[in-house]
Each structure stands twice: as structure tokens, then as C-alpha cells.
Amino acid sequence: MQIEPTWNLAIALVVLVILGTLVASWGRLQIKGQIVVAAVRAALQLTAVSSIIVLAIQQLWSSALFVLAMFTIAVFTTTGRVGTRNVWWWSALAMASGAIPVLLIVFLTGTAPFNGLSLIPIGSIVVGNMMTAHTLAGRRFFPELRDKIGIYEGVLALGLPRRRAIWMVLEPVASEPLVPTLDSTRTVGLVTLPGAFIGVLLGGGTPLQAGASQLLVLVGILVGQVITVTVMHRMIAAAYLLPTDLRGALRA
Fold this sequence. Notes:
CATH class of the largest domain: Mainly Alpha
Shape: globular
CATH topology of the largest domain: Multidrug efflux transporter AcrB transmembrane fold
Largest sheet: none
Radius of gyration: 21 Å
Number of helices: 11
Oligomer: single chain
Helix content: over 70%
Number of strands: 0
Order of helices and strands: HHHHHHHHHHH
């Protein structure tokens, strides 16, 4: 089964966007405008990117540049979402710490051939999920620090260093950004059949090949996100990766 770019697809997409917007309005969710913008952007970007990928995927160097461009956009997007664009390089380091080891293991072990056909899809999946981990962690950790500033100051009053004070505030919620990926990995095949699995099947692969591909993707994402969130946690505790307001509020 393949989805063709026909009027049927256009009608389905329009109906879906209208449905999402109406439900968001009914539920008083402040995202109804964002639904339309996101859908239109996705359509335009995928149309443009489809043409670029055809060219980039033919050479390893151009494929690597394409993945690097995706990483740059991912850093720009997530730092804007969590308010760390002022220290974007630390966010980039956290994401790269998760993405690079996963990609090295996948390609150095020969699990996937090191060419454009493999690098772009695998790289995009890994980079996208490191962005998600960074966003989830930032949207959980930074509000926690703002809400628990009293605990932070109390720990400092006991004579403990700033690193330890931040650590004590965040430690109870440190693993929460990883819950969605943990649940997806635990329930794969039982609740969902994710994209890599379906993609291999639609491409003519066997169910066993589809399962192997999906297993590699899920474990790679999980391990990469664990690294990203851990590095991020450490850098926050060291007061390197903080939004501007917290950088002032968490002075020792």
C-alpha cells in the first residue's frame, strides 16, 4: 500500500485539520491556530524536502550535510521551545551526545550500510527524537526549578553547593522525559506498529526484516534519549544550560 498525492489525500488532510481545529476550539486549547500552521508547513516542507533528498541521497557527503542541516534546525526549534536559545551550544552538545554514539554504533557495526540511503533516514529519526527528548526535559526541568526555588535556596542555606542544590530539585523528575519512549519500546507490537516497521513492510520487506529495523530504531532512540537527558541534567546542575531568568535566580 502506498499513499499517492491525489485529491483524495488533499480532502483527507483538510478534513483532519478542520476536525482537529474544531475539537481544539471546543476544548479551549490554545493551539487551534498552530494546528493549521503546522499542517501547512508540513505540506510545504515535505514537498520541498522530497526534491532535495533525491539529490542529497546520491552522495555520502551531501547526505551528511543534509543530516547536519536537520540537526541545526532541531537545535533552533527546541531551544526556542524551552527558552535556552541564549545558550544554544549547550543544548546542541546534549543532543549531539545522544545522537552521535547511536549513529556510530549503527554504522560501525555494519548493521546498516554507511551510505546516503541509510544515513538520511536513520539520521533524521535519531536527530528528531533527540530534539523531542531535549524539549520534554526542558519543559519539565525548568518549570520545576522555578516552582521549587524555595527548596533550592534551603539547600544552599545548609551550606551545600549550587550544583547539589539544583540536583536535589531535579532528581525526582529526572527520568520523566523518557517515559513516552520507554512506553513505546515496552509496548511495540502490542499497542502500536511504528513507522520503521510499516515502512519496511510497504517497501516489500519481510515481517522479520521489519521487526529487526524497528527494534534497532527503538533501542537506538531510547539509548540516545537517555544520554541526551542525562547530559542535559548534568549541564543544568552545573548552571551551564539555563534560560536567562533561571541563570539569574539560581546564583549561588
